[in-house]
């Protein structure tokens, strides 16, 4: 295990109807004037936004609204939010929605107290200062409700990039699993895939003797494998939703990723897909991950076999662990298909002729220097080959 | 899953030599005058205390010392610490040691800013205010470095009781696994047992559909079962020590205990043993847990069988799950014996003639009202029978 620091001071309020605590939570963390940031009309139509506003009102917290966050959130709205925060003296940002609304809120929070261009943070500058953020989560997926990360797409070039920093951990996050019950099956499955992808990115490591985090990751994967078919079969299954929601937070707050190298090339490879085709991030990951695994299996056959045995219940082939390792990847593909996820470029609407360009951007775009991935460093040609496995 | 809140804002610094960060950490959290609280001479002899004092000095942090914390820490020293904090205007408490030093520091931190008797908190009053606490951990066991709990023995009646409250979460905790390498095998094994006991207390629940926390608990148990023999065979195994140390924190910060009923009768039953015979808490738990499990197996055979299969690798007897459940308890006993833990009253130095009195105190002492345990509520007679299983 490597030396590390871990600081996750988010206050979580979990359960039915807890969005009513929004006002009290903002007050607890010192907010007096809130930017209420959200996405599509669904939080309006469902009445959630009204309930949140009532709760803010009850605590005499003033409120400015900025809706319109899109999936794969864009830089344009971030600039708008930053201006709004400055002109209206906003001191707290409350995101209502999924990872997109939260990530956009984080970008605004960092940009509002920074004299330069907020995009600096998405080119590697660590975020050390930001307005405090609260979240009311409506999609279990991104884990942004408990993470110090944010991913934004820059409309100037359509680069999709991440920022990170302690200051981006939300002050509080309200997780009501019932709010996710109205999600369409496809979006639910995308969220499940994203959560599992966050675990895979941490699982594939060259750091040895990390049994405790290995076992925690495997445990969370097993819970997801158990709950996913239950929630796909019955979208109103509150308990399955609740388990998935907590797993989504735990998968990405890094308590199971500490002290070990991580990979993250699959996210980089996927970000090109969702930046180019505006596909759902989770759907993109479903296409990318089996291909990435197949391509990199030879790098550490035993680690892939371990995952196959412990998470997918494959029988270990002791005379040929590669067989077991490959069986794990097949099991993942079968699982993803069973919950309605795509597995190919065609299903995603992606095009073979864009592969070279995407591989180049993934490795060199927006200041990158040629390789991605911590487990297996991949160059442009490797990335081309991985994209080709998705055809 | 039940509704819950979760707030664990401790800043963790994990790894070799990190105790050198002590001064910077105290400064980060606003401390200017520290009560340095520790136990036996080992932290003095090893030079650890000097390194910590040097680090405080470098940041111009003033320092008052209070050593002498004993295992099963006592109320007398807590009163002394509270007086010292008040007379010396201490604004930060830094514990150097294991759970005893940390729990004692927490009691002082709560008492120093409270006008009444600190023992009120150990009779059920929640701790909402306390001086900030930092810890430098030297024993992986109690999990107090990341928990909101503290256990103190009141010398007036020798009651061993717990207090809890958000204000008791340490502001920071420094975890250097190398500091635990000098621990004798017996103390190491006691720590391992305590960590596993914290997981068992959460695992045995009547709350249904808690797959995510079940799987996390099982994952942490599997890691402990893997690492325990490695560290007993080779006390200098840094990596095994590191895995155990992080598992110890995760086992008790409650991220795997949220949203579910928990039991904790075994801890209550053990506290009578360590209060009366001053035995090591972990050793007491090794004697109590198999007996508690055997007595309560019938309450939920499938849950015991699930633990046996998932943590101990027992084969499921589908025609008679009770056989599997019992095999899990046997596996636990064998494991505890293999790491040098006692399994009987005699090995602990406990006496059969004290059983009635201990059972009475466990159920009625210090304000209790007759039953203990959340999974299976136990009355005095049940507790007598459980103690008898330890003979």
TrEMBL record, chains A, B:
Keywords: Oxidoreductase. Residues 189-388 form the Fe-containing alcohol dehydrogenase-like C-terminal domain. CDD domains: BDH. The keyword Transport does not apply. GO terms for cellular component: cytosol. GO terms for molecular function: alcohol dehydrogenase (NADP+) activity; butanol dehydrogenase (NAD+) activity; metal ion binding; methylglyoxal reductase (NADPH) (acetol producing) activity. Pfam families: ADH_Fe_C, Fe-ADH. SUPFAM superfamilies: Dehydroquinate synthase-like. InterPro entries: ADH_Fe/GldA, ADH_Fe_C, BDH-like. Residues 9-177 form the Alcohol dehydrogenase iron-type/glycerol dehydrogenase GldA domain. PANTHER family: ALCOHOL DEHYDROGENASE YQHD. This is Alcohol dehydrogenase iron-type/glycerol dehydrogenase GldA domain-containing protein. It comes from Acetanaerobacterium elongatum.
